[in-house]
């Protein structure tokens, strides 16, 4: 691994306006190397990015926060991932087509729920979202197809809240982030942290286009620079804790989380080694897919396919973030950017991730 090559790659990517800011962390041989590039805020004199600069990590929220929380509750026999969702969300019991949807289905994207809906247009809270989603017909029968769905993780977040009688944020802080000393990983960062957070995008152009193309008239629009509030509008409407997105974190904290998974026997008071193993192996092979519990297998992502071993796992975030873990070689790869800042949706960012992973792996 050539540090100068990583630095040059980040600089050239910034010049090409793929992103204004980036933080890379690589853990291997029991050491972590950080390579950072760009300003914290492109239009303000707030200093340069470092390994403690916070990014909106978007869908990495799914495995790091929501999945881990659900597995903790399963570990403690507070819920059972094989049980129907209707046992935990009474709204689902009112609709016969939902009776066979289980927690497992939500976690493996096999529930039959749609990939995305502009819930933020119809719902003022996550509770409203649960009622709305329960009333929507499934696209396919549960357990028959894999379709990546943010909607399932909105439901999982609400299940955590109802069973623990606290917010997803508070549960994750006390049961995951504090024990792992992930001191800069949180939902809804306060104004005192703003200068250490990169801005994401002015508005959310992608979601606006998605909704318009699906025939929805959008009336709740954020045109402001989204900075220190979640970029994903459904998570924003769920008080920043959608379960599908909402988490802010740093390269250094995500390395800590990666080590928590890699080092199976450490922190058994957080999650048992058996459940750590279960979360990161393919649960959907019968459907010719490669999904673990909340995690994606490296063989199914163009960001990692043919670069990392098939047993590697990770997740990407729409804002330009990724976390990938190689259990064979005990490596962790963190790539944090705010690639949506320039509203350049034309580029295939997975090809950018693949280039970086190739450089790191050489």
Q: Could you describe the 3D structure shown?
A:
Helix 2 crosses helix 7 and helix 5 (126-135) packs across helix 6 (151-164). This protein has a six-stranded antiparallel sheet with strand order 2-1-11-10-9-8, with helices on both faces. The termini are close together. It has a domain at 66-173. It has helices at 3-15, 61-75, 103-107, 119-122, 126-135, 151-164, 168-177, 205-213, 233-237, 251-262, 273-279, 349-361, and strands at 22-28, 31-37, 55-56, 186-187, 201-202, 225-226, 247-249, 296-297, 313-317, 321-326, 331-337. Helices cover 32% and strands 12% of the residues. 51% of the residues are buried. It is an alpha+beta fold and 362 residues long. The longest helix is centred in the N-terminal third of the chain and has 15 residues, at 61-75. The protein is globular, with a radius of gyration of 19 Å. It contains twelve helices and eleven strands.
Topology:
Layout: H1 3-15, E1 22-28, E2 31-37, E3 55-56, H2 61-75, H3 103-107, H4 119-122, H5 126-135, H6 151-164, H7 168-177, E4 186-187, E5 201-202, H8 205-213, E6 225-226, H9 233-237, E7 247-249, H10 251-262, H11 273-279, E8 296-297, E9 313-317, E10 321-326, E11 331-337, H12 349-361
Antiparallel strand pairs: 1-2, 1-11, 3-7, 4-7, 5-6, 8-9, 9-10, 10-11
Helix pairs in contact: 2-6, 2-7, 5-6
């Amino acid at each position: 691994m050539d540090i100068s090559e990583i630095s040059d790659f980040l600089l050239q990517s910034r010049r090409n306006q793929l992103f204004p800011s980036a933080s890379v962390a690589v853990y291997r041989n029991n050491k972590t190397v950080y390579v950072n590039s760009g300003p914290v805020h492109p239009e303000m004199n707030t200093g340069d990015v470092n390994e403690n600069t916070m990014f909106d990590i978007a869908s990495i929220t799914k495995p790091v926060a929501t999945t881990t929380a659900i597995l903790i509750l399963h570990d403690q026999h507070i819920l059972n991932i094989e049980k129907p969702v209707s046992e935990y969300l009474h709204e689902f019991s009112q609709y016969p087509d939902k009776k066979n949807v289980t927690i497992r289905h939500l976690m493996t994207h096999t529930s039959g729920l749609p990939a995305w809906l502009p819930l933020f247009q119809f719902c003022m809270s996550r509770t409203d979202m649960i009622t709305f989603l329960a009333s929507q017909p499934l696209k396919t029968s549960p357990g028959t197809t894999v379709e990546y769905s943010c909607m399932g993780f909105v439901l999982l977040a609400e299940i955590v809240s109802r069973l623990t009688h606290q917010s997803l944020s508070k549960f994750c802080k006390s049961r995951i982030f504090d024990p792992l000393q992930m001191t800069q990983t949180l939902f809804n960062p306060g104004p005192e942290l703003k200068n250490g957070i990169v801005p994401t995008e002015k508005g959310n152009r992608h979601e606006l286009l998605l909704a318009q193309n699906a025939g929805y008239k959008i009336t709740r629009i954020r045109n402001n620079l989204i900075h220190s509030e979640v970029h994903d509008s459904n998570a924003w409407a769920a008080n920043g804790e959608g379960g599908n997105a909402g988490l802010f974190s740093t390269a250094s904290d995500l390395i800590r989380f990666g080590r928590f998974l890699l080092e199976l026997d450490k922190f058994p008071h957080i999650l048992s080694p058996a459940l750590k193993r279960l979360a990161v192996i393919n649960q959907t092979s019968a459907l010719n897919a490669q999904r673990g519990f909340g995690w994606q297998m490296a063989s199914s992502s163009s960001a990692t396919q043919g670069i990392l071993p098939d047993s590697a796992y990770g997740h990407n975030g729409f804002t330009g973030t990724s976390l990938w873990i190689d259990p064979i070689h005990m490596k962790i790869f963190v790539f944090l950017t705010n690639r949506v800042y320039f509203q350049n949706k034309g580029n295939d960012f997975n090809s950018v991730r693949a280039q970086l992973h190739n450089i790191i792996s050489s």
